[in-house]
Amino acid sequence: MAEDAQLHPSGDPLLAAKFAVPAVPPAFVARQRLLDRLTEGAQGPLTVITGPAGAGKTSLAASWREADLAPGPVVWLTVESDDNAPGVFWAYVLGAFRYHRVPLPDGVGSPSSADNVDHSLIVRLASALAQLPEPVVLVLDGLEHAGVHGIAAELDFVLAHAGPSLRLVLIGRVDPALPLHRYRAEARVCEIRRSELAFTPQEAAQLLRCHGLTPSQESVGALTDRTQGWAAGLRLCALAMQRTDDAEHFAQSFAASQNAVADYLTAEVLAAQPAATQDLLIRTSILSHVHPGLADALTGRDDGERILGRLVRDNAFVEPIGDTSWYRCHPLFSEVLRAHLRSRSPALGAPLHREAARWLDGHDRLTDAIEHAAAADDWPYAAGLLVDRLAAGRLLTGPDSHRLERVFRSMPDGLPGAAPALAAAACAMARGDATAGRKHLAGARPNGDATAECLLTRAVLRLLTDADTGPGPGTTAPTAPASASGGDRGGDDCGPATEAPVPSRGTPDPDREVRALMERVDRERLDRHPEIEALRLYGRGRALLAAGHRPEAREAFAAALAAATDEQTWTVRYHSLGALALAEAVDGLLREAEAHALDGIKAAEEHGIPVDRRTPRCHLALASVSADRGDLTSAARHLATARSHPPARDVPAAAEAAVLRSRLELAHGHAAAALSALDDVPVAADGPAGAEVAGRIAVARCSVHLGRGDPAAALAALGEAPPGGPALAVASAAAHLAAGDGARARRLLAGLTGGEPVAPAVRVRAELLDARLTAFEGDTGKAASLVAGAVRTARPHGLRAPFTEAGPWLRHLLARVPGLADAGAWLTGRSAGAGKRPVRGSGSGDTATGSPLFVEQLSPRERDVLRCAAQMMSTDEIAAELFLSVNTVKTHLKSVYRKLSVSRRSEAVRRARDAGML
């Protein structure tokens, strides 16, 4: 019945055993009165079955389902103590519906965080259930384990809005946190409580007869009185009576106490076993699952398989796990056994955990082994397993990452040796704290006889922690480029003066040490850890990106994606998609960036990556794509989503977020806010990563200053930047041109040829700047040709922003040169002839001549002002209408004139109407 594995919010698979309807135990008594009550209750929305442990709650519901008395399909979920987080609980509820073949539309979604659930998911679930063709019964067994009040409120909401399509059966030891008083007042709840669950003397007699016993009426009465009809007590008593010579006396003398389960299990189950069986049960109580071989390792004997098989046959609270060789004890029995271990042999726990760790390690159950080593408080051994088995990468990615992080989060600080320091570093990096990771790595100094696995682990972690600070030791440093923005800073330049070509920078080799060490590790072991190669490539990409080598970084991220196909590499794949998408977006490869960003967001949902572990880079890439396409509304929306995933300690991502925010503020005419947005990024240009971030911020500042007509400030902003590549050179050329130094701008642009590859976004801006210079020099034909070339470069990528940000000169050129009609049509989204309108009067306007319109987007407030102006309102009247000052209205009008490339109000209104803005 199981479908494909569904995912827990942590990324772990959901445990299908929780969806299985428990088997009705042998010698079960079907009590018709309770089956009828449950059938009656299922006609309404809510049935609550409460009682103590062992009262027969689960068996009742399971037998009712087996008897096919439900009004529709039954969906079963056994709720356990680790399901008490809202996201985990609802992930299992959705998984239960899928497991039991109750169709829910894909649009319902799934929780992305363990700690909370978006209310819209609850709404979608209720809506989907309300549309089911027949009622469905959802049985939640053990709901007391999901005691968070928010879960109860969400459950109440679903029940209320799913209508008659949902019938809820809640099983637990205590009342659910639902408003039962309201359900009672509305006669919409059926409650089956302890008193009803208790066996009557007649039912108790039937139970004993099912166990092959023929007790007297007096014995049944005494037993029923003393157990108060408690189902588990009666069953335990029946099992014991089968083994006694005087069943009548046993039944008459049976007495329950406050610790009846523990007392009875001890006296009648544990004590009834041979000494060797008792020893095995107590020693294996430290395990959640036991294998005969593991049992032998803990007892020092070879009788594990025989004893476990006999316990299963004797129904002695041990059961096999599916078709495997593993077994498990009943949880209550396990608790009793662990209590005996603590009381009888308190010093035995740690050695048993340590021995279990050794056996599990030898049988490819590494995470279990590490957990037992930690339970033994043997942290050097636990950390040694992590490092020497090359599993530190699994702290960062894969289904066991959260289990391992929970283990090592409890490890004390300051333990000697390289392995604990490496484990602590990996744990810090799993939390996104590269600074703490570097600190721990500084203390991880392998000695001369360190294994290749230890050295490789250290090299991989160092590559990842240094990824945003540039290449560290063991790398080939990039050749220092001649600055495109530095050089002679004397005289009255206020900024860059370099006129030499921008050279190609030598590519660093940040992962050279990792590759060399991978050659020293056993190939079979390395093949079992595909996350190492994926992490290497991802770290290489981050380091190259930090050093400003975007094309090579993109290649590394693409290679990481190709390597990240195993479940152990889910997280690496997700982060590689985000990093690749953002790098492509910044370079102007918009279609590729959009595809990879959407794939990354999908991967996060599919693999249940928690929200607090998600990167903002996917949404930053989408924001950048939207901005470059001229869709500022979508850009703002994606940027807001990106900022909801804080780029904790991810300075490059924070820088991109600041640059995007600045661009959007500038596009809306808010220059001061645009500059302020760039002040939020802590820029420290003390390495390749800092230089790259500082360069990005400097170019953004330059754009703001140029937008506000202050070329001197633009040059000053660039003068503070470290040496950079083509983007800085183009920004410098634009600033010099705005300052009136066209010759220097020309030389800077000429320096781009023959140097390192230029990304489409930078190349388009360079071509437009060249066109502007050419037009300024009077060669309109050549300028038009250059603009057409820029369009050819931009069009395959959908790059419109460089044109909207180019200024009025481009709009005038498009209007004057008929040969640019096709270019203008693409930029405005019209066909080449769409700009033609019937000519009025003399037909002197741009529209009358059929020239394509090309206008920059207006902010919402600028549109409001323009609408008022179109109604022939004066400046004072507009100010009063919009509750603005007169000066503010004038400022908005000036911005409108600039964006529409007009000088009068009437022209602005006409141009806006022609562009469809009014």
From TrEMBL:
Superkingdom of source: Bacteria
Stretches the record annotates as Disordered: 466-512, 832-852
Pfam family, one: AAA_16
Bias type Low complexity, positions: 466-486
Record-linked Gene3D superfamilies: P-loop containing nucleotide triphosphate hydrolases (3.40.50.300), Tetratricopeptide repeat domain (1.25.40.10), Winged helix-like DNA-binding domain superfamily/Winged helix DNA-binding domain (1.10.10.10)
Positions of the HTH luxR-type domain: 849-916
SUPFAM superfamilies: C-terminal effector domain of the bipartite response regulators (SSF46894), P-loop containing nucleoside triphosphate hydrolases (SSF52540)
GO BP term, pick one: regulation of DNA-templated transcription
Residue stretches spanning the membrane: none
Keyword Transcription regulation: yes
A GO molecular-function descriptor: DNA binding
Keywords tagged on the record: DNA-binding, Transcription, Transcription regulation
Protein name (database record): LuxR family transcriptional regulator, maltose regulon positive regulatory protein
